[in-house]
Specification:
Blueprint: E1 2-13, E2 16-21, E3 33-34, E4 38-39, H1 46-58, E5 64-80, E6 86-100, E7 113-117, H2 129-137
Parallel strand pairs: 1-6
Antiparallel strand pairs: 1-2, 1-4, 2-3, 2-7, 5-6
């Protein structure tokens, strides 16, 4: 089984948190709302990898002006690929509190949509299990 270190930003701006809707046809949590983030690449530092993932997925315009390590956890997930194959992966999640200085998002094909969501509205979204665990631990759900 392959191991991946996943860098996960919990991005806040003006009291709202950024959620991203995963594509319906691929990924670990197809069609559900999640936090952005992705895998640490070989040779990267943790913060450089986190900032790269944010830039790749959410665009250069989003300004993250504060990054604070918050917590970590792990689990095993099955990832579905566009060709229909699947893979079981042991995932180590490193989760960061991030503050955005703006809300300018230019998301890539990894997401179908994005939303800035106030804490009282988070429960109304179809959150994936990993995001639900994270938001509960943060006291937001």
């Amino acid at each position: 089984m392959r191991t991946r270190t996943i860098l996960c930003p919990l991005i806040e701006n003006g009291g709202a948190y950024l959620l991203c809707k995963m594509p319906s046809h691929r990924g670990v949590f197809p069609g559900q709302w999640a936090l952005s983030g992705g895998g640490l690449e070989e040779g990267e530092t943790i913060e450089a990898g986190l900032r790269r993932e944010i830039r790749e997925e959410l665009g250069e315009q989003l300004i993250i002006d504060r990054v604070t390590p918050w917590t970590f956890r792990d689990d095993t997930r099955t990832k579905a690929y566009p060709d229909g194959t699947t893979e079981e992966i042991y995932m180590i999640y490193l989760i960061f509190d991030c503050h955005a200085a703006n809300r300018e998002i230019a998301f890539n094909e990894e997401f179908e949509s994005v939303a800035w969501v106030r804490p009282e509205d988070l429960a109304s979204y179809d959150l994936n299990e990993a995001t639900r665990i994270t938001l509960k631990a943060k006291g937001l759900l």
